[in-house]
What we know:
elongated; four-stranded antiparallel beta sheet; 20 helices; six-stranded antiparallel beta barrel; alpha+beta
Amino acid sequence: MASSGRFLSSSxxxxxxxxxKLRETAHVRxxxxxxxxWYVVSDTVNGRVHRLAPAAYAMVAAMDGQRTIDELWTxxxxxxxxxxxxxxxxxxxxxxxxxxxxxxxDVPPDAQELFDRGSRQDxxxxxxxxxxxxxxxxxxxxxxxxxxxxxxxVRPLLGWFGAVLWLAVMLPALxxxxxxxxxxxxxxADRILSADNLLVIALVYPAVKAxxxxxxxxxxxxxGGEVHEMGVMFLVFFPLPYVxxxxxxxxxxxxxxxxxxxxxxxxxxxxxxxxLFVWLAVxxxxxxxxxxxxxxxxxxxxVLFNANPLLRYDGYYILADLAEIPNLAxxxxxxxxHLIDRYVFGTENVPDFSSTRGERVWFLLYTPAAFIYRxxxxxxxxLFLATHYLAVGVALAIWGLITGLLMxxxxxxxxxxxxxxxxxxxxxxxxxxxxxxxxxxxxxxxxPAPLHTVTEGVVWLPDSAIVRAGTDGFVRALxxxxxxxxxxxxxIIASEEPELQARVDTLRGRVTELEAKLASQRFxxxxxxxxxxxxxxxxxxxxxxxxxxxxxxxxxxxxxGVLAMERxxxxxGRFVKQGDIVAYALPRSGTQVxxxxxxxxxxxxxxHHLRHVDVKLVGQAxxxxxxxxxxxxPSGQDQxxxxxxxxxxxxxxxxxxxxxxxxxxxxxxxxxxxxxxxGAPSQSYGSxxxxxxxxxxEPLGAQIWRRLRQLLLSHIQE
Length: 718
């Protein structure tokens, strides 16, 4: 313990004559953290753990209940010299050990003080429950005797035999899981959150988590620890069993401590692997559904939550043990507070923060990353639940906002306005804090910021260059060869339709017949003549319509260009439908068009807040070309103009996996045509282009709010 501050204390008389000693249930173990020796004091009864530096332990080890604290401190000062702790540090040490119930003294305990301490602990526990919506613990039983009695039956699984068995099951499960990943993840949200499946999860999840917690308990017992608490933890309001394996913190070897932290996850992954084998082996039915839920609850949740060190679950404790930084999250928060007090608020006489250079790097990086990730997880869960159960998702989001953002901000502001450490620097602290908040408010709510959206497009032919079939028919002959120059209006493909030709011949005969009949009735029977005249007009109209269709059997070029068609040798005899593309008249010069798709979320910005548009072409990434908006299709559509824009063709748009052509979308888009300037390099038709729409500037807060609102609405509407 390095000395800092005054060597003597005005409060020394309060503790100088006390004769403390460690409780009989307290054990001390020597650990090494990042090359330095530390001593860990743990109580096997209440599970409390306290870490001591060598100088502090020298005093604690000498506490025998006979010598006073003043005698212990005097002896420490003589032996350690400049390394001896100050009187204030000794008072702080004694207070911490007393608060952790690790000391007993020669003075009878103050009953009122014990009651007050219990009340404070209860209030702190309730506050933790309120501020942490993801985890609430209720202790129920002491499982130590049960674990000790059954440990001989489980011990073989905790050694080399268990490791080999685990690998023998997990390795093939990983391979099979990768092969069947699309089937496992298809429509996973609806499958999990359906009303029938929620009951299955309610039965499966606690059972799987019970095995998880027993893994922690047995691993702790196998390494000599004791487990005296088991109960129910409400994880996102869902009851789950838990085991308090904090005794592992006293284990001397960091790999043993990490093994206890990993035991639960290893058990869950083993169970998930067995469930995968069952899921693959059985036919669809209740057993397969049960196995699927075990895979999700035991496998996916373990990887996403328990194994993630940014959440304070198993992965966090494993990281803290292997990095040799105990209490990483709490110390990281304190270090950030220390930096703000010292360098931002300019607080005087701030004691040095006890840490190494390597630990400070961890504190600087881990604390903000963990904070951001916790908020992301909370709101992601809320969004996921809101898709099917809106009230639950909104309630969780509000709770997360209050406990994750508003309460920490309120606590920080209260510290600035009333905290005792800032008494002498109150004005500066308040000025810096509220000045920063004001600047942030201006940045988010008033100061305009650039706004743009990006999408993809393809270089598109003008509509006049596309040769389409005018009507249904069979291709009879090619009237122009591929690669030849064609003129606008020049015939390209001749088709025939025998039924249409037969109908035209029939209608012509019918018209001739009705004309002769009308001529004979005109002067003999005027009533019959009127009826025949109506029939004749109808027949002539049908004939004219079919003759027009006959004319459409010949496809003509709509513009000058070079004729191109796909597999021209296969064209004769091929049946084409009206509107099918049969050829292209590729223009040798003129403007080029980029056809792009705009997501539904961005179409309002493109329509009403557009400043200008730039395009980058494939192979010309260094150059941007300003383009002109030619037209926009007013209604949304669920098909892409070209499969190159879809995910199956390397594009960014998500394609419906059921569509074999690769053009049907999962969400609707709007189509826009953009005209490239005359100086733009010539590109092959169908090549990709990247489009950037520059919009009117607006504050960042408005931009963030728009995206959050769209995200929420898109999930609610699903």
